[in-house]
Automatic annotation (TrEMBL):
InterPro entries in alphabetical order: Pyridox_Oxase_N, Split_barrel_FMN-bd
Residue ranges of every copy of the Pyridoxamine 5'-phosphate oxidase N-terminal domain listed in the record: 169-276
Lineage: Bacteria, Bacillati, Actinomycetota, Actinomycetes, Kitasatosporales
Name of the protein described by the UniProt record: Pyridoxamine 5'-phosphate oxidase family protein
Pfam families xrefs: PNPOx_N (PF01243)
Domain of life: Bacteria
SUPFAM superfamilies noted in UniProt: FMN-binding split barrel (SSF50475)
Organism name: Streptomyces durmitorensis
């Protein structure tokens, strides 16, 4: 019997191009549809969850959901609930108000450099969201900056979102100093949310309409780049870890493969949404991952 491999042809094409199909098959065995007790316990201590998907018009976004620990929890071996759901003004609010919306989620804990991804179908509930899992898996701690979370949420409410079709000077400066962002991508059967990290400056902003970053070696799955091979739509989420401001970007992305084996992703902006105070949490300054290129051990 041929074992089930959780990859579509886009991911397979990238794996074959890079020469990591065997490694991808090995790692792919860790992808299941069940939430193990250790994963359920991890979710229950998280103060934030990133969710990715397409809005009713087809634009792809990554959004930040926050709450007191326990706002995300497993409600069965194949389902999680999210209390509160997205803000009414969030770009994904309309899609998440519908039944069966394909979503990708990632719970990333800077305190422990652990992360867990769960992809599936969302539906609204009286308290927020429920997500039925199709894929559940964890990733290594590579490129995650360590941060602590002092107790107590910041007072105040999120501002009204500010929309734009190009990046402002302040936004470009903020992106150029970022050490972390989240990437939402989609394919014919679902969606995915992943993490990208590096030292400040790993994201380049050559114009008000374009972002560029190097794709660092990872787990060989190539879920995100595989999705972009078949569907270039993408959503990016940047968080100001101190003030709680979020900058959400939607557009398209393509991957460039160099002869030396390096990969570069170029993102072209369609719309930007900036929200001050979107997160109530203020994290400490980062301890950069020793895996970051250029980082001293």
């Amino acid at each position: 019997m041929v074992p089930h491999v959780p990859y579509h042809h886009g991911s397979r094409a990238v794996q074959d191009l890079v020469g990591v199909r065997e490694a991808a098959d090995h790692v792919g065995r860790s992808i299941g549809d069940g939430i193990r007790p250790v994963a359920a316990a991890f979710l229950e201590i998280q103060p934030m969850l990133v969710i990715g998907g397409a809005d009713p018009a087809g634009a792809v976004w990554a959004s930040l959901l926050t709450g007191e620990p326990g706002f995300v929890r497993a409600t069965g071996p194949h389902q999680i609930s999210v209390a509160g759901g997205p803000r009414r003004a969030d770009p994904l609010a309309g899609a998440l108000a519908q039944e069966g919306t394909p979503v990708g989620t990632i719970a990333l804990d800077p305190r422990t450099r652990r992360r867990m991804r769960l992809n599936g179908r969302a539906r609204p509930t009286p308290r927020g969201l429920a997500i039925e899992a199709d894929q559940v898996f964890s990733n290594c701690p590579k490129y995650i900056q360590k941060r602590e979370l002092p107790p107590g949420a910041m007072p105040g409410r999120p501002s009204a979102p500010r929309h734009g079709v190009k990046l402002t000077g302040d936004q470009r400066a903020f992106l150029a100093e970022a050490d972390t962002f989240f990437l939402a991508t989609v394919h014919a059967e679902g969606a995915d949310a992943s993490h990208r990290g590096g030292n400040p400056g790993f994201v380049h902003v050559p114009s008000p309409y374009e972002l560029v970053w190097r794709d660092y070696p990872g787990n060989s799955m190539f879920l995100s780049l595989g999705n972009l091979t078949t569907d270039p739509r993408a959503g990016l989420l940047f968080l100001d870890w101190v003030t709680g401001m979020t900058l959400q970007l939607t557009g398209t992305a393509r991957t460039e493969y160099a002869d030396d084996g390096s990969r570069t992703v170029r993102f072209t902006l369609t719309e930007a949404v900036e929200t001050f105070g979107a997160s109530p949490w203020s994290w400490t300054a980062p301890e950069y991952s020793p895996a970051n290129p250029g980082q001293e051990d």
